[in-house]
Design a protein that fits this description.
The chain has 36 helices and 3 strands. It is mainly alpha-helical and about 625 residues long. Among the domains are: about 70 residues, Serine Threonine Protein Phosphatase 5, Tetratricopeptide repeat, CATH 1.25.40; about 45 residues, no CATH class. β1 and β2 form a beta hairpin. α5 packs parallel to α7, α16 packs antiparallel against α17 and α23 packs antiparallel against α24.
Length: about 625
């Protein structure tokens, strides 16, 4: 099969010939061929040579056969640093981090390649703190970091302070900052942290730049929310006569998407046609997202159907587009088709799908998606877990939501916010407050606007007025959050329910926002119970001035006049309601049974068997009355 191995005369034993055999193995990427060549070396006693051993070792490692690689490693008489580094890299690539550390620990000499491999290995497994610890240890041994070392560290940075420290260290170490890769990595690092001005500072000091440099800068502006600035950098890029690539176009469409500028998005899409990028998965996904966010879902669907080949990125975009438009059934159909095409779902896809499962679906649909999570290995993913918590809380299965939250190994602030909101809206006020205290004391995370909204709403529902006021008073000073309309609305409703109308009105009149109608409505309802007539009339007038087409203030006034025996004024209010012809909003309830959603309105029952249901209800009422129930 391999005629060049038939002869074993001396010329064939030369290093150059053996090296040629290994080159042949490398080009074919064939494990069988490597084993045949290795056996040839064993037969000729060449397996102990350092150079040939290292070459064999590298080939086995690349093909993922670490056991065979170890046999080669053991046969090498004089192991040099290259031998140890290849062995270390083999363990890291095969996912055996513990074994890799044992090799690292046993190495007689560690050069910069050794340290880079180990730091990169820790980074690839998400062990950022270990990677940074190794970097510090590396400097203590006197090994000088290379540009590659810093490029790894830049991908791990999570705070502006660390980013600036690494940049300063690079300057002090006299690393070649003219290196294009390092320059691009610096732009991306600062962009990831929202330090756009530093990204600009880096690119202005670069002697040369390429498409990746501009892409990184455009992406940095987009990520930080400077969408117009991102478009300006694209024009600068074109002025520099650099040709945009697929990544440029996908980011630009995301920019137009966030700007809700469909016209500019169409121009970018036309440019993609001109460049031949339209059937690129990343570009098409961005275009689907753009059209969906611009309320052109039909265009998203058309583009999705025109794709010759689906992948996870395309399916992610289409599922999230359907979810965005509350078309959960369509999202589920795309997901099923994705599975049939043997496309492995991503964490984002599962999260989007879970968010599309509304209360109109049976909870079993959510259960089925949940059952896929451990099979796909997503149980430790925070985004998926948060979506599951939200799903079960939305369906009222708050205990299941709480159990998922407790089992999460890594909880971010979104996790805490999701469970606290779910607990609050399911009436578990005391548990919400306990979790809030736990978040502050044990987790060391500062709450954000959403956290404080959940807590204030819990205080509102649980009638914890004093505690709610105390938290509200310390929002800015204690937590660094400027109170928003949602926080004021919670406090106004809380005070109104307790009959503290003066305090509620004082807050409305002193807050830095224009009061919403909902705030005045909270006070109006309370006024009907606790307030004097003058206050009721004043609040009702404010609502009428803002929303003249609703009947609520007139009805509350009529009730207030009736309670005080002012019958003539009460009749006048009721006639005002009749004469103005207010359209009353009808309350609805929905229930999903199997594949059907049944709608119940306050004035009718939209169901084919409505009469039968009412007859059954009447019989039940009669039975209850006969048993003595009111």
């Amino acid at each position: 099969m391999y005629p060049f191995l038939k002869h074993t005369r001396a010329p064939h034993s030369s290093l150059s010939y053996c090296s040629h055999l290994l080159d042949h193995c490398l080009s074919h990427k064939s494990l069988n061929l490597v084993k045949i060549v290795h056996a040839h070396f064993l037969k000729l006693g060449l397996n102990t040579y350092t150079y040939l051993g290292n070459r064999c070792l590298d080939l086995y490692s690349e093909l993922g056969h670490i056991k065979d690689a170890l046999k080669v490693f053991d046969d090498i008489f004089h192991k040099n640093s290259t031998s140890w580094n290849i062995c270390l890299k083999g363990f890291l690539n095969s996912g055996q981090l513990g074994e890799a550390f044992h090799v690292f620990d046993a190495m007689p000499v560690r050069d910069v390649i050794t340290w880079n491999s180990m730091i990169s290995g820790y980074a690839s497994y998400g062990l950022s703190s270990h990677a940074l610890g190794l970097f510090i240890e590396m400097q203590g041994t006197g090994v000088r970091p290379s540009g590659f070392t810093y490029s790894i560290l830049m991908s791990l940075v999570s705070s502006p302070c660390h980013a600036k420290q690494i940049h300063c260290r690079m300057i002090k170490s006299e690393v070649d900052l003219d290196n294009l890769v390092l320059g691009n990595s610096l732009i991306t690092m600062y962009g990831k942290l929202g330090l756009v001005q530093y990204s600009f500072g880096v690119i202005m000091t670069m002697n040369q730049y390429d498409v990746i440099s501009w892409n990184s800068l455009i992406w940095a502006c987009h990520r930080a929310g400077y969408h117009e600035l991102a478009l300006e950098q694209f024009y600068q890029m074109r002025g520099a006569e650099l040709l945009p690539d697929q990544f440029t176009c996908s980011v630009l469409m995301s920019v137009c998407s966030n700007l809700r500028d469909l016209d500019k998005g169409k121009q970018v899409f036309a440019f993609c046609f001109k460049m031949g990028f339209v059937y690129n998965s990343i570009v098409s996904s961005a275009a689907i997202d753009l059209f969906s966010k611009s309320n052109r879902l039909e265009d998203s669907v058309r583009l999705f159907k025109e794709q010759n080949q689906w992948d996870s990125a395309l399916c992610n975009s289409m599922i999230s587009s359907y979810a965005r438009h509350d078309l959960g059934e369509d999202a589920l159909q795309v997901f099923v088709l994705t599975l049939r095409k043997n496309i492995r779902p991503t964490e984002y896809m599962v999260s989007s799908l879970l968010s599309s499962v509304s209360i109109f679906f049976p909870v079993e649909v959510g259960n089925q998606i949940h059952s896929l999570v451990p099979k796909l290995g997503f149980e430790s993913d925070a985004v998926v877990a948060n979506s599951l918590v939200d799903l079960y809380a939305k369906f009222g299965f708050i205990d299941d939501a709480l159990n998922i939250f407790k089992e999460m190994k890594i909880k971010d602030l979104v996790s805490w916010n999701t469970i606290m909101m779910g607990l609050t809206y399911n009436g578990r006020v005391s548990v919400t407050m306990d979790l809030f205290r736990e978040l502050l004391t044990s987790e060391g995370m500062l709450p954000d606007r959403i956290t404080l909204t959940a807590v204030l709403q819990a205080c509102n529902y649980g009638k914890l007025v004093d505690e709610g006021i105390e938290i509200f008073s310390s929002i800015e000073m204690e937590y660094g959050v400027k109170p928003g309309e949602e926080h004021y609305a919670c406090v106004v409703e809380m005070l109104s329910k307790e009959g503290k109308l003066k305090e509620a009105i004082d807050i409305i009149e002193t807050m830095p926002f224009r009061p919403t109608s909902d705030m005045w409505r909270s006070i109006l309802f309370a006024c009907a119970i606790y307030g004097d007539l003058q206050v009721v009339e004043g609040v009702a007038k404010k609502i009428i001035d803002r929303e003249s087409q609703i009947s609520l203030p007139y009805l509350v006034l009529a009730q207030a006049y009736q309670m005080r025996g002012r019958w003539e004024t009460m009749v006048r209010m009721r006639k005002a309601v009749e004469n103005r012809g207010f359209k009353e909003s009808i309350g609805h309830s929905w229930i999903g049974i199997k594949n059907n959603v049944y709608t119940f309105a306050s004035d009718q029952l939209q169901h084919h068997g409505g009469k039968d249901l009412y007859l059954l209800l009447n019989l039940l009422v009669l039975d209850m009355e006969s048993e003595g129930y009111a």
